Structures are given as structure tokens and as C-alpha cells.
Amino acid sequence: MIIVMKPEATPQDLERVSDAIKAKGLGVNVSRGKERTVLGAIGDERVLLEVPLGAFPGVESVHKILQPFKLVSREFRKQDTLITFPNGVTIGGPEIQVMAGPCAVESEEQLLYVAERVKKAGAKILRGGAFKPRTSPYTFQGLGEEGLEHLAKAREKTGLLVITELMDPRDLPAMMKYTDIIQIGARNMQNFRLLFDVGEVSKPVLLKRGLSATIKEFLMAAEYIASRGNQEIILCERGIRTFETMTRNTLDLNAVPVLKSLTHLPVLVDPSHGTGRWDLVIPMARAGVAAGCDALMVEVHNNPEQAFSDGEESLIPDKFDQLMAEVRKVASAVGRSVA
Ligand code: PEP
Ligand code: MN
């Protein structure tokens, strides 16, 4: 349920409505816009049917939210969510942001080299996994906290923002120290405990779509995070499993405009995991931008043949330069820009 307050509503009006909602055992989310304040009742809203909220002083209108996801829905919030970092980088605005870097942090030298190259090409965010969700327990699992330290060093040296994946709530304190964006990987999209935990911190979260998740399940996972207070969520389309075997996954570009219509959250496209093939990354990055994404995530490696993970889908830095040049053209054709 959404309760839109009149522009002249007083803080007391707001409190009275909020108390009435809480008295029914529901939570309240307050969203203050330029002209109006909007209250969201969080929980099973059927209990509110017997409360005449429309008759409370200061209330302009009351709306039922039809979608099962509430806080992340466009019904709840019309304007796009902008995620802004202290260095001025914004995700969700007219400028498309690019996150690039190796699948896994392998060494300090490797990370610094790739960081410098992607920065030079225009990326503002460095990606790199320190904790890797590998299909086999016998393959490289990531450098762990040492990898986080390399990321912090690269951030310090280059001024790039940093994103890395969190797999276990026990690593959350370290994440808070080292990273600017917390990535929740596809395999953990429905790890609800983890979602609640990142919902309680104040750091942006990149939520990757599950391997076989529908768009509704994807948005419900985002709702788990938002329901605990953290509304700074970026949704990542990274391909889903289909019967097709020519590519690692099927990059579902339908999801981009569908998500943009259903939610106010920024949408990112990952053509690296979405295809699993480096030769398809540039065309699908172009397509993602044409479809209306707000950001891209691209795997870049100095020597893909020797990569510890995902070498087959990683671009060499020269190819990443080409990607940036090409997506810049597409962005300008659709009224956006890329740094
Ligand atoms: C990654 O970004 O390296 C990764 C493991 O992605 P996903 O969770 O989409 O497979
Ligand atoms: Mn990867």
C-alpha cells in the first residue's frame, strides 16, 4: 500500500498515519520527494483494508500496489533511482557506467595493470572477484581477503571505485572496509539470509540474476534487500540458462526494458557471463546499451589464455578499448553517454 501525503501535510499528520500502519504490525518506508512525501506500508497489506487511511488528515490518496514486489516497483517510486558515490560517479543517470576488470583477482600486479588499462579506456569502476563461486571445489576459489587488499590498493592508486562479490555473511565486515559496491552473484540470488544481511548495510549492492530466475523472482530478491532498508540496488542481467549450447548463457535483453518499466532501480548488462565468449562481448555490450541499460560489466584480462577463471569470455585490454569506442557511439544514438 502506498499513501501519498498532501504537500501541506504536517509531520504530525505523517506520524499519525505511520502509527496506524505500525499498529497493524506492518513496517513503514518513508520516501520524501521534492513536493510530496510518500509512505509505503511493508508487509501483508490486507490487514490495512479495515483502516480508513484515506480519511486521515494530510492524506491525499491511498494506492494498493498490485505487484508482489513493492519497494522496488515503479508503482512505489516513479523516478529512476540514482546511486551516487562520493567521487561524483552516478549509476542510473544519463551517463552509462562501465565496470571492468578480471573475473578473479589473481595478483597485485595483474590487477594494477588491468585497472590502469580499463581506467584509461573510460571505465570508472574496477571489478574483480576475491571470493569466487566456482562450479568445482577443485578449481581456484579466489585469493580471499588478500584479493580484497589488492582491490583496495588498486582503488587507492587509480581512483577507480571497486566492486567484488560477497558469498558469505561472515565476510561482510571485510567487504564494508574494502569495496564500494557489494556484488551478489547469480548463484546466491535467492540466498535470502545473505540478501537480508546486505539489506542492512549502507553500501550499494549489485544483484545478479539467478541462472534460472524469472524476472519476477529477480525483483522479489531485490525486494528482500530493499525491505531491510538498503534501497541502493543495481540489477544485473547476466544471461539465463536455456536449451541453447552455442553460448554459455542466453543474454536476456528483453529483461532490460521489462525491468526498466517494472522498477525504478538501475539495470546493468553483463555480456561476458551472458555469452561466455569473448568474441560476442562487444556486439552484446552494444546491444545492451541500445536496449536501455544504465551500466555494463565486462571481464578484462591481461592474458586470457592464462586466466584462473573465465578466460574464454575475457577481453584483452586492446579489445576493451574497442568496446568502449563502440558503445560510446551507440550510447549517443540513444541519447546517453559513456565516459
Ligand atoms: C562474476 O561476476 O565473476 C560471476 C561469478 O558472475 P555470475 O554470478 O553472474 O556467474
Ligand atoms: Mn567471471
State the main characteristics.
339 residues, alpha/beta, Alpha-Beta Plaits, TIM Barrel, 8-stranded parallel beta barrel, 4-stranded antiparallel β-sheet, 33% helix, elongated, binds phosphoenolpyruvate, binds manganese (II) ion
Estimate the strand proportion: 15-25%
Using only CA atoms, what is the Rg?
21 Å
Our measurement of the CA-to-CA distance between the termini, rounded to an integer number of angstroms, reads: 39 Å
**Into how many domains do the coordinates divide?**
2
- What's the order of the H and E elements? EHEEEEEEHEHEHEHEHEHEHHEHE
Overall 3D form: elongated
For this structure, what is the CATH homologous superfamily of the largest domain? Aldolase class I
What do the pLDDT scores average to? 96
User: How does the helix and strand content classify structurally?
Assistant: alpha/beta
- Stated plainly, the CATH topology of the largest domain is called TIM Barrel
CATH C-level class of the largest domain is Alpha Beta
Q: Roughly what percent helix? A: 25-40%
Bound molecules: phosphoenolpyruvate, manganese (II) ion
Main β-sheet, spatial strand arrangement = 7-8-9-10-11-12-13-14
